[in-house]
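Q: I'm writing a short methods note and want an example of a predicted protein-small molecule complex. Could you take the sequence and the SMILES for zinc ion and return the bound structure as tokens? Please keep the output block clean; save any remarks for afterwards.
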Amino acid sequence: MKKILSIILFLAIAFTGFAQIDTDDNFFEDEEDEELADADSTSIEKVVKIAVDTLRTKDKYTNVILYEDQTWDYLPLPRPGIDSTSIYDRWWNTESLHAYIGYPKESIPDEVDILLVDETHGFKVPYKTKVHSGFKWRRKRAHTGVDLPLDTGDSVRVAFDGVVRFSSSSHTGGYGGLIVVRHSNGLETYYGHLSKRLVIPGEPVKAGEVIGLGGSTGRSTGPHLHFETRYKGQAFDPERIIEFEHGALRGSLFTLKKDYFNIYSHYGQSEKQEAEAKAAVVAAKQAQYYKVRSGDTLSRIASRNGTTVAKICKLNGISANKVIRPGQTLRVR
Ligand SMILES: [Zn+2]
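A: Understood, no commentary inside the block.
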């Protein structure tokens, strides 16, 4: 019965109230005014109101609360905003390309809504072109960004407003000339293989500002920009937020899932592929290795480790008649 009542109420609210959420900016204020006007005569009644249920609306940040006396109210929830101050207070490091080393990954929620841009904080694509190589496992290492082909000397632009956290061409591993910018929206972006860096750590930057020139420094086979997006130090596929070929954001609000911090997880995957990506990480964590001893054969290794030759071949990307040598390491799980 209660459920039916809820549905009737929900439908009634849907027809009377929802349109106003989108069109009437002052809707909540009007509501408040009414409540204030009523306050004198109905204040006792207000105090004893008992909430029996909350319902979602098409606006993620507004719920409807139902009371026992069959009245209802909108319940505004906290909306994500762009924070221009506290993001630069903690885990700030201008000496190292990674600032969040030791940050407790478990404290990151399973899902976090990030407002990428608003009226005062804009966006500009770092370099507008088709992605050459994406966020994936590539040649025995994780490729934690996208490669954007360019000509050496081309302008590279900062994606969002922020402050330069790191700018160096030494001790950057394979990145070569690297700039890292922390943004007011909570993300960090990385710009690698630069031939010239035009900003220094601590320098504030506005979206679209030229921060460096493209190149092929570091571990690179030709001129391109290696671009990364990170949250609390964890890389996720930049194509989840940026459509590089058209130089546009996919949306102003981005729901970042913890599952995205996974080299097998990328933009455009089906639910099935996403599940496979999760399973691949679990399997990688449970990986077991075996060091080949003199006289070993694949079939002997397989039986000793309770597996099959076919499975070992698949895990190591080898064929069943591959010659194995003592001292060599094979993955058996
Ligand atoms: Zn790259």
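A: Remarks, as requested: The first helix runs from residue 2 to 16. The helical segments are 2-16, 18-23, 27-47, 271-285, 298-304, 309-316.
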